[in-house]
Amino acid sequence: MTNRRNFLTGAGALTTAACAAAVSRVAMAALPEPILQTKPDTMPPLVPSTGRPYNPVVTLNGWTLPWRMNNGVKEFHLVAEPVVREMSPGFKAHLWGYNGQSPGPTIEVVEGDRVRIFVTNKLTEHTSVHWHGQRLPNGMDGVSGLTQPAIPAGKTFVYEFVARRPGTFMYHPHADEMTQMAMGMMGFWITHPKARHPLIDEVNRDFVFLLNAYDIDPGAYTPKIMTMLDFNLWSWNSRVFPGIDPLVVRKNDKVRIRIGNLTMTNHPMHLHGHEFLVTGTDGGPTPKSTRWPEVTTDVAVGQMRQIEFLADEEGDWAFHCHKSHHTMNAMGHDVPTMIGVDHRKVVRDITNVIPDYMVMGERGMADMGEMEMPLPDNTAPMMTGAGPFGSVEMGGMFSMVKVRKDQKPGDYKDPGWYKHPAGEVAYEWTGALPNPARFAAEGGKSMPVQNMPAKEVEVQVRKPMGNMKH
Ligand SMILES: [Cu+2]
User: Fold this and answer.
1) 44 CA distance to ligand 1 centroid (A)?
2) Which of 219, 240, 215, 217 is nearest to 327 (CA)?
3) Higher-confidence residue: 149 or 14?
């Protein structure tokens, strides 16, 4: 390949990708050598060196799988295997994935391409790969038991079909799904249009990521696969904030973000500072007449959404799931709300028994962002992320779209924090503070009631958090 990407560290892997044309017929009859990637960094887009040209996507904290061209067929080699994924700095999870990573690499092809995918199963149980959203022969759909026998451990199966329609797709097992998806087996698939498409605009930057979720006890490494809804790690491409890279763009870039949801709940995805249009789903590009501006779009379970906007406002714009419990990391959330509760007496009693007992949440939960509370080894802090003005108090499904006028075209390097022009940051008021006006008709002034209770009753609200379902 002309584009020798720095992640192709293995010489063999580089040879496979670089010299497809020179490979002998004997080698072509063999499997394409699997290409692995173990770093969680966002890799630069993989510019195609064979086949029709297209504008490649950028996989957030991920990469695109190189292919080899074999008699006009694009050949890929996916290896299903156990992987270690760094979910955020200092926190590693033992997952299952493909080619060294969870999620697996993004596969990018062009409408009309004939694609052959070798899938080698290095797991301890059988698997299969379902190509979510694709038009293909029924026997290539990857539903074990229904359309094919499952791929036994240690075996390699071949899938082959033509990528018939352009769009945003994903792949995942359709065998022991509950286990294999809870363990992180999934990946993105993009089929680019073969020519200008009336409903697919050209963009300057095209980002992709999958929404996924894990239940990993603090201090543990392996997800609890029996969890149905109460996950404690809400991730993008198996990363949690502050481990998620920013989406870096140049001012006035047209930006597309493609999102797929393989969690067990919906995620209202919210962008600050810009309005976007939903331009596509896993069903294909949306008709122009159906598009209206939004700043939040819900991505339901098993759905994909592609959003587009003109990045014409400079700054560090938050981009996150709007469910506030999804922008937090592992926590015991069977914790009662303590705001406004005076527990001095209780604490005195408890510290007689447990000297290190610590009260949480008396003034809110913001203290958690900066608290130097000892965490078990290998645990992501609950809400953290140092920003230029202090803790961002976020975890989970949170990142930023960083818009900069001096970002070079094609440069995805983090430009650091936005430098706000003078006078454009919220500031403290230090003048006189008159009493703020308050609504004065509370209870019975505008509508006098004769039989009001004589004594004022103050209601203590205690939010139930025990059996919370997302
Ligand atoms: Cu969410």
Assistant:
1) 27
2) 240
3) 149
Q: Which CATH code is given to the segment(s) 234-404?
A: 2.60.40.420
What tokens does 231 get? 């996950």
Residue indicated by tokens 């297209």: 54
Cα 232 to middle of ligand 1, angstroms: 11
126: CA distance to ligand 1 center in Å?
A: 30
Q: Do 11-199 and 234-404 show the same overall fold?
A: yes
Residue-range domain boundaries for the chain:
11-199, 234-404
pLDDT category, 5, cuts 50, 70, 90? very low
Say which residues have a Cβ less than 8 Å from residue 237's Cβ, sequence separation at least 6.
59, 60, 61, 62, 103, 209, 210, 212, 244
> Is the pLDDT reported for residue 68 higher than 70?
yes
What spacing in Å lies between the alpha carbon of 262 and ligand 1's midpoint? 11
| Residues around ligand 1, an ion, CB closer than 5 A | 267, 321, 323, 326
Confidence of residue 12 (pLDDT cuts 50, 70, 90): very low
Q: Is 403 helix (H, G, I), strand (E, B) or coil?
A: strand
CA of 335 to the centre of ligand 1 (A): 20
CATH superfamily, domain at 11-199: Cupredoxins -  blue copper proteins (2.60.40.420)
Q: Tell me which of 87-91, 253-257, 306-310 is least confident.
A: 87-91
In the reported structure, the alpha carbon of residue 307 is separated from the centroid of ligand 1 by a whole-number distance in angstroms of 17
